């Protein structure tokens, strides 16, 4: 087993609708809308990676399948996932829990950071092509000898001022609160002197916690897509936490990983109904978060 090769205890049996599915006619409409949104992104070619276009395409994909995006901040008023530039300029390492393939467009809909993903994502139908066009960097988890080079490359991107998003659990779980954070990506933040931004991703259906978006175990990608397209009232809630500012003398990668995981898991709660920023996934491109 390699450093990034992690087995989740969650299986396809964990993924279930919290409320009744949408009717067949709505499922068919969403399938057509999803194909249209994906096709528009593909026709953009290499321009898809441009920040404004990438964010707009991510929102369009979510909206096409009826997924509502809600963004909220914890403990501060954040301008986005990236932390304002420090001196010398550094990018931000964004770390989030991992539940679904939907996590990727959800993050990109908030801010078009560079994504770090396992090599297998590049082989997924449609999404693999979209991920490559979006500038995703892929990790070969079956080759542990490449780990030092991968960490060095990630640190280099952060030093250049580019923000990168990673899923340090290295696999998907059915809900927030499960799975340890692997430490390698945090070493890159330490080496670069870059801030770490924890982010929590959670899914609801009509205010009820839901596992319907889970992409778990050995499930085929298209099977998960069909289930998500049939989900009624699905919301992805992205909670942005205050940044962690690592210091090489005071932190190590273990401490950073534990602090980030504690921040991400700290929002495990009933769905909020109070004061929060609500963003419709299908709305036109507006002011950056």
UniProtKB/TrEMBL annotation:
Every copy of the Phospholipid/glycerol acyltransferase domain together lies at 92-204
Q: Name one GO biological process term.
A: phosphatidic acid biosynthetic process
| Keyword DNA repair belongs to the record | no
Matches recorded under SMART domains: PlsC
Asked if Lipid metabolism is a keyword of the record, the answer is: yes
> Keywords assigned by UniProt?
Acyltransferase, Lipid biosynthesis, Lipid metabolism, Transferase
SUPFAM superfamilies for this protein: Glycerol-3-phosphate (1)-acyltransferase (SSF69593)
For region Disordered, the annotated ranges are 267-289
Record pathway: Lipid metabolism
**What GO terms are given for molecular function?**
1-acylglycerol-3-phosphate O-acyltransferase activity
Q: Which PANTHER family does this entry report, sorted A to Z?
A: 1-ACYL-SN-GLYCEROL-3-PHOSPHATE ACYLTRANSFERASE (PTHR10434), 1-ACYL-SN-GLYCEROL-3-PHOSPHATE ACYLTRANSFERASE-RELATED (PTHR10434:SF64)
The name on file for this protein is 1-acyl-sn-glycerol-3-phosphate acyltransferase
What species is given as this protein's source? Streptomyces chrestomyceticus JCM 4735
């Amino acid at each position: 087993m390699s450093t990034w090769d992690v087995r989740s205890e969650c299986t396809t049996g964990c993924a279930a609708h919290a409320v009744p599915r949408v009717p067949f006619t709505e499922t068919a409409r969403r399938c057509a809308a999803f194909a249209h949104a994906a096709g528009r992104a593909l026709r953009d070619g290499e321009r898809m990676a441009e920040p404004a276009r990438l964010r707009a395409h991510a929102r369009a994909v979510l909206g096409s399948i009826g997924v509502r995006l809600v963004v909220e901040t914890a403990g501060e008023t954040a301008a986005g996932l990236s932390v304002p530039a420090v001196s010398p300029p550094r990018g931000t390492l964004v770390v989030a829990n991992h539940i679904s393939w939907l996590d990727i467009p959800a993050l990109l809909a908030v801010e078009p950071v560079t994504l770090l993903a396992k090599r297998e994502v590049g082989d997924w139908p449609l999404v693999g092509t979209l991920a490559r066009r979006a500038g995703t960097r892929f990790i070969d988890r079956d080759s542990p000898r490449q780990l030092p080079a991968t960490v060095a490359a990630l640190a280099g991107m952060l030093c250049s001022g580019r923000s990168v998003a990673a899923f340090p659990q290295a696999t998907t779980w059915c809900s927030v609160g499960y799975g340890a954070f692997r430490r390698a990506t945090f070493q890159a933040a330490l080496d670069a002197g870059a801030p770490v931004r924890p982010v929590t991703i959670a899914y609801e259906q009509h205010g009820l916690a839901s596992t319907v978006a889970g992409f778990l175990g050995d499930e085929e990608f298209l099977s998960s897509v069909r289930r998500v397209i049939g989900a009624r009232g699905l919301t992805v809630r992205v909670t942005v936490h205050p940044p962690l500012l690592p210091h090489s003398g005071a932190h190590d990668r273990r401490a950073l990983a534990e602090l980030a995981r504690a921040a991400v898991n700290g929002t495990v709660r009933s769905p909020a109904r109070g004061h929060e920023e609500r963003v419709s996934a299908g709305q036109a491109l507006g002011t950056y978060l």
